[in-house]
Outer membrane receptor protein involved in Fe transport
Amino acid sequence: MRFATAASVLALAMPATVNAQESSETANEGGIAQIVVTAQKRAENVQDVPIAISAFSADTLRERAVSDVAQISNSAPNVSLDAGTPFSGSSAVLSAFIRGIGANDFAMNIDPGVGIYLDGVYLARTVGANLDLPDVERIEVLKGPQGTLFGRNTIGGAISVVTRKPGDTPAFEGDITTGRYNRLDARGYADLPLSETLKSSITFSIKNRDGYQKRLPYQSATPFVTERPGSLPQTGYETASREGSQHEWTLRGKLLWEASPSLRVTLGGDYMKIDQSSMSSSVLAVTTGVGGPFAGLAQNNIPGTALDVVTGSSGFFFGGLYNFCIGATPTQIAARNAGALCGVRGTPVNPATNLSALAGVNVDGDPNNNRLPYDNRWVSTDKDVSYATGNSFSNMQVYGFTGTLDFDVSDTIALKSITGYRNLRWSSGLDLDNSPVALLEPSFSLSQNQFSQEVQLIGNALDEKLNFVLGGYYFRETGKMRDFVTFADGLLQIIGPNDLKTKNYAIFGQVDWRLSDLIGVTLGGRYTHEDKDFTGGQSDANGFNYKLFNCPVYGEPCQSILGFPVPGQPLRYYVAGVQKKKFSNFAPKVGIQLHPNEDVMVYGSWSRGYKTGGWTTRLSNPLPTAPDFDEEEAESFEAGIKSTLLDRRLQLNLAAFTTRYTGIQLNFQQGVSPTVQNAGTARIKGFEAEAIIAPADGLTINASLGYTDAYFTSVLAQAVVAPNPFQAGTMAGSQLPKAPKWKFNVTPRYRLDLGERGVIVLLADYTRTSSLWNDTERTYLLRRPGLDILNASITYRSPSDNWELTVGGTNLTNTRYIVTGQSQAFGAGLIYGTWSRPAEWYARVGVKF
C-alpha cells in the first residue's frame, strides 16, 4: 500500500532524472531552477543530457543535512550508498551500488563498480571515497554504464563531485553545528581574490561526534583471563570506550588564474585526516555449535590427523574448536587427535611470539587460567552496547593535488587538461565478537598513491548542431595493503601483505549530432588497456594446517605434503613471484534523441561498460597457483523522457532500463575467507521516476520512485551457495545484493517570506525503501527489511540573508537496520553486523558576508 501511494503521487508525471532544490529567487518567480552539469564533458542543462542523472545543488545538500557522499543515497532512486563495508571498520569506506551493480569491499585487489570523481579526478579506492562535502557546488549521479566518457570501473555508473570555483569578490560562508552525542562541527568557505585575474578560495571542515555504541566491561561471577594487548599480530592496538564516533578535519584550497580570455588555469589541493573509533558492531547470532571438520570423531578423521573427511561435521569450526579446547580433558582431546590444535599457539618459526596452550584450561582445577567460552551470552541484546575489548580505531590521512587547464583554441574548439595526484594512508582495527575473547579481530593498513592525466578536445560545428569530445587518459597506481585477522583466540592468525601496481591508458570520443530540429544521434566509444601486477604473501602465524595434520616439522617434508608453495617459507599460503594480468576493452555507446519541442526530449541508448579483474588475496589454505578472477561486463539499453512543463512549474523525467550483467565479481564466504570470484550472469531491469513540482509560490515538492529487479540468470557451479538454516543461498533466480526492488522519496519544501522579518524554510525528507540483502549468500539476519526514514528541519533566515538558524533531526522515527555485516557461521562461529545510527537532533548557525 505504501508503494501504491507513492506511485499515485507521481502519476501526474512519471519521473525525473533530476533532483534539484530551487533557489529562493526562482521560487519567488514560481519556477524550477536549471542545473548545469558536465556529464558529457561540456556544460549543459541537465534536462538536455540523454542520460539518467540525479543532480544535487549545494543548497539541496545543505538543507537536507547531507555532509558526505553516502548520505545522498535516500534521495537518488535505484542508488544504494552505505558508509562502510564488511569488516572495514571505517565509515570513510564507500559501498556504492547503482541499479544493482557495485562493490561491497575495501580490499585493494577489488576495484569499485561505481566510479567516484572529485573535480574530474578518478578515485581508485573505495577507502576514502565517502568524501566530506564542505564546499560542493553540485553532485552528479550518472546511472548505468559510463564506460565511454568515464572509463573502466564505472560499470554501474559514476558519481561526480564538483567543488566551487573561486569567486570574483571577497566572500565568506560558514556554519557551526551541534547535536546529539556531543556533536560539534564547523566549516567555512572563503573567496579571496588576489587580483583581477588571480583568484583563490579556501575551505575547512571539522567534525566531532561521540560514538553511539558504548563499550562496557563484562561482569563475570568467576575469574577469567584474556590475551594481553599486543600479544596477537595486529596493525595497531588502539581501543575506545565508544564505537561509531566521528573525528575528522578537511582542508581544501583552489587558485584560479585567468591568464587571458582564452586561457584559464586552476590549481587545487585537499587534505583530510580521520582519527576515530571503528564502526559499531553487534553479534546477531552465535554458531559455535555448528558441526565442522576440525577435531572430528576419530573414526571420521584421516588416520593420525584431526581432519574429518567422512562427514565434515563431527568436529568443529574455529569458534567451536576454541570452546572444545578450553573445555575438554586431555583424554577427550587425544581421542580426536587434537593435541597440536589445542596446544601452544604459534610455531617454532617465530618462537618469541608463541602463546600458551588452550588445552583443558577450564577443567584443570586452576581457576586462575579459566577462559570465557564463546556461546549465546555474546549475542547482542542491546544495539548500542558492546562488551568487546579489542581494537577500535579508524585512522586515515589523504591528500591530493589537481591541475586543470582550459584553453579556447577558437570560438568552437577548446582544449582541457586534468592532472591529478592522490596519496592515501589508512589503518583500521575492530573487534567483531562483542566479547573479551579474541574470536574475530581484524585490522588493516593501506598505503596507496595514484597519478592520472586526462586531455579532452571539446568542440562544435555546423552552427552548434554537431558537438564532439575526443580525449586520452593515463592512470598509474601503486599500493601496499596489510591484513591481520585473528580467529578463535589465535588458533588462526592470518597475516596478509599484498602489493599492487596498475597502469591504464585509454582513448575515447563521442559525437552528438542534431540532424534536425526533431532528431539527434549520439555515437561514442572508448578503448582501454590496463596492466596489473600483484604480489601476495598471505600466511598463518599459528601454522594451523601443520597442527591439523599433526605434522610436527615446519618445513620439509611437511611443507610439500601440505602444499605450502614457497620453499623456505613454511607458513606462506600465497605463491611467490609477481602475478601479471592484462585487460583490453572497447566500450561503445549509441543513442538517439527526439525533440518534439524545446521542453521535451525522448531518448534511447545502448552502451557497454566493464570492470577489470584481479586476484583473490584472502586465503586460509595454501594453493599452488594464485587464484584470480576475470573482468565483468554490462550491456545496457535505456529509454527515457525529460520534460519541463507548465511554465517551469513541473519537471518530469522517466527512464527505463534493462542490463545484461556478466562475469559478476562478488564476495563469497568460503570458511573464514571472504573470496572474490566471477559468480555468473544476471539480468537487471527497472525504471526510475523523478519529479519536481512547484504548485505555488514558495512550495516545491521533489519526488522520486525507483524500481530494480536484479537477479541471477545463471550461477557458476563453484559459486553456488545452497540454502541452509542461516542463509537463503545463491543460485539462479536469487536477488543480487544491495539492490532493493523499490525506493520512494518525497521532499516537500516550503519557503515562507516574512518580509522585513526574514524567511522561514520548512523541509521534510521521507524515504521508503523495500527490503534488500546485504550479502551475496543472502544471510537472513543481515537482510535489511523495508524501511521508513524521515528527516526534517526548520530554518530561519535573517532579512539581510547574512545569517540563518536551522534546527532539525535525522531518522526521526528511530528506524534501525543493518548497514553492513558478514556471516562467519561456518568459520569463526558468529554472524555480526553494524546497526545504523539512531535518531539524532542537530542545530546549525550559519553566516555569510
Remarks:
- The two ends are 48 Å apart (CA to CA).
